[in-house]
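Reading group handout, session on sequence-to-structure problems. Before we discuss, look at one worked example. The prompt was deliberately terse, the way you'd type it at a terminal:

> structure E3 ubiquitin-protein ligase

The input record follows.
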Amino acid sequence: MIMLSRFELYQIFSTPDYGKRFSSEITHKDVVQQNNTLIEEMLYLIIMLVGERFSPGVGQVNATDEIKREIIHQLSIKPMAHSELVKSLPEDENKETGMESVIEAVAHFKKPGLTGRGMYELKPECAKEFNLYFYHFSRAEQSKAEEAQRKLKRQNREDTALPPPVLPPFCPLFASLVNILQSDVMLCIMRTVLQWAVEHNGYAWSESMLQRVLHLIGMALQEEKQHLDNVTEEHVVTFTFTQKISKPGEAPNNSPSILAMLETLQSAPYLDVHKDMIRWILKTFNAIKKIRESSSTSPVAETEGTIMEESSRDKDKAERKRKAEIARLRREKIMAQMSEMQRHFIDENKELFQQTLELDASTSAVLENSPMVSDTALTALGPAQTQVPEQRQFVTCILCQEEQEVKAESKAMVLAAFVQRSTVLSKNRSKFIQDPEKYDPLFMHPDLSCGTHTGSCGHIMHAHCWQRYFDSVQAKEQRRQQRLRLHTSYDVENGEFLCPLCECLSNTVIPLLLPPRNIFNSRLNISDQPKLTQWIRTISQQIKALQVLRKEESTPNTASSKNSENMDELQLPEGFRPDFHPKNPYSESIKEMLTTFGTATYKVGLKVHPNEEDPRVPIMCWGSCAYTIQSIERILSDEDKPLFGPLPCRLDDCLRSLTRFAAAHWTVASLSVVQGHFCKLFASLVPDDNHGDLPCILDIDMFHLLVGLVLAFPALQCQDFSGISLGTGDLHIFHLVTMAHIIQILLTSCTEENGMDQENPAGEEELAVLALFKTLQQHTGSALKETPSGWHLWRNVRNGIMPFLKCSALFFHYLNGVPSPPEIQVSGTSHFEHLCNYLSLPNNLICLFQENNEITELLIESWCHNIEVKRYLEGERDAISYPRESNKLIDLPEDYSSLINQASNFSCPKSGGDKSRAPTLCLVCGTLLCSQSYCCQTELEGEDVGACTAHTYSCGSGVGIFLRVRECQVLFLAGKTKGCFYSPPYLDDYGETDQGLRRGNPLHLCKERFKKIQKLWHQHSITEEIGHAQEANQTLVGIDWQHL
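And the output record:
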């Protein structure tokens, strides 16, 4: 009563029809709202008074029960990380929560994946202790917890009722508090609210008011049940709530009992949410009634609750069944109508339908005759190359949504791409280009010290749509720079932009092309193609003729008589027409895009100003194609994935477009320049008199050489009308480079003996490789080490050449479009024999030397007599041995404290022994740097930069991965203006990172997260990751990354 007065609600509950009168007076809406809020607050206060007993002294509990309850209710909202949970719990006088002692009893710990944190999830058996009106919940938390718990119950196919939990008994001093629930005033309030809900149209009431009343009824029932369960013989239970709610109201109103009203509300359509709760109350009521009857401790008024409950449940089931049946009949009727309409349409358009059937049959026949036939061996190159019917390719522009077929004569379609310099495969990070303007990149050294990698997000645009988009980005950037002097995540001046669809960082576009070889190789092939020896002689004659002609063109006219003599001497090889210039098969739009991408690769790869006329442009294009294929082969090998397994679409599209672009680029370059490159590359394997200063066989990366030779060869072959096909040239170039690579491997292979060698009987391969090794010994003199066993040599050759064969298979697959054999599409075995068959190689690779004995002797002699080979064999210089090992990031210690100790001993190298404030570890090479300080700033390209930025240029070609030791933070840098922080690979016992070392828990290395960082580095995705991070968080753009 006092409470009613304090809340000024006495009037409402004591006057009949008070609510009705209020609701009829529309003008007093605010008063109604205010009264409703007051009633809700009062009911909430009663729930608090009776329900909150988890303080020692109030209820029969201890401190552990209290903290358990806090954790249960926090985890009821959502699973939480350890740090989040600690923050949300109340602290004691020692600033401790006591969580560790009880957490295992109430929650499961779910370990983190590659991202995210370790989470505590509530155990299912603790969900029954959830109290919707927990007093530490805010309004928002209460609704979140209610939603989460209802969702969980729905998933488990349980009732969505959230009944009050069973509470511990009060201490004797507070024991009488529970009687509030069965007091007459309380029952009157309950009855009034329920009556408002029953006659809902005329009264002002709220659902949350009803929900609180139902909760209070539930609490009273739980309390009575508990009293009955704990009763002893001599005691009588005085808590008779069930009896009181069964009685109807007194005169003059004669209102129905609380129980009867609940049963009425159970079938009310407007209270769907509370149905389960009402059902639970009725069920509990019946259970208590049964207990009372069985113990006969107190008579309870007979009601038909059970029968009514069961009948209402049956009614619900019958209603659901009836609705399902109606829905099924309706579906059947619609389906019948649709099939009737289809039949009618087919009858009307019989001829059209017949044509469609015939067309389907013909297309399926074409598919059956496609090159995927399993009984024919698939061959990727050479005269015996598997002929693939050209498939039409239709693509859709992401900007204008227009579909177009990819053709040589149509408008160009392009792929957004990102070209970057890379040292991911480098075996010598100390080497860098001194003078880019004069550097000749024709021969790639096997240490792959710096390559050019091309990546793509795989999104396609029309060339003109892209140009328009890029112009608008440039214009917007110029306007923005006038207003704000901020960096963006991309540098428009360097040609960078974000892909319009996925916002992936890009700096150029690759044109989409059909297989270029089908366009160039349109001439008929004569069946008898020359063998390797004959072909090398023919090519050498053609090269010689070209060189004489070039000399003539460069000499002045005064010596014309001498020239004519030379012309007489020069016997042009049969069918060779050096004056013939082929017609370019591509449209103007495609030619422009070929030049655009070629120039971008040249500009980024050499860090020079763009110049499309520079003779090094085609070399950079071939080099980028070779380097990208090599890096993808490394990734697949490191992850034990099959070479032709299901590659991600963006990777597959990028490799296909890049290889076809590199094969077509010679059509927009100067013919004489490309022929000059071919002559020089060819002379590194087949020496001639005009090229003396070429690198020795140990200093050439054979895959780069193969790509350069194969892609430059059409420039020479287009003037050859003798009938030698392009495929024959590819095959002989490939065989020649493979032989050179085998010699390379034999010269550099370490020859430690293995105890098992002698047990294996010598096979054909072992004997052949032994004979070849002896030939090498003859040509190199005694410098080559003593003869190891044939088995050991063959194993070295086979292991050493595998990466080269895999890269070659990828290259010819994308160049010629021959599908890969199904055997190579699965992981497991080494696939050596399958690769050899696909690449037209004998399984015994040494047969290449035996079949072409006369020329291979001369070639081996010329390769071995190089002065550099002799220096290597005498131990005066090093050489790369094969197979090259994959580069990995440095090994990090298991315990983070080891890194902290290492960093605390590190002093700044430039300030005379002072301790570094921000020691930073390069994860690529392991160098500790003094970051973010003026003492270690250096000048780079005319700008002051910090130690980390300077280090990225010497170690990673502008890209760096660092660990800031004092902050426990990974730092990604790309260039001077791009950077972001990344989640570190160190986690505490609760699966959380501790960036800034604020919590101070012991940290341990998470190998999976470290592998993820390594994978980003291997995939050249660091710059892309930075771009996405800066787009998502604009504050990162404002940081001066160059000063770190």
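Points for discussion. First: The two ends are 70 Å apart (CA to CA). Second: The longest strand covers residues 451-462.
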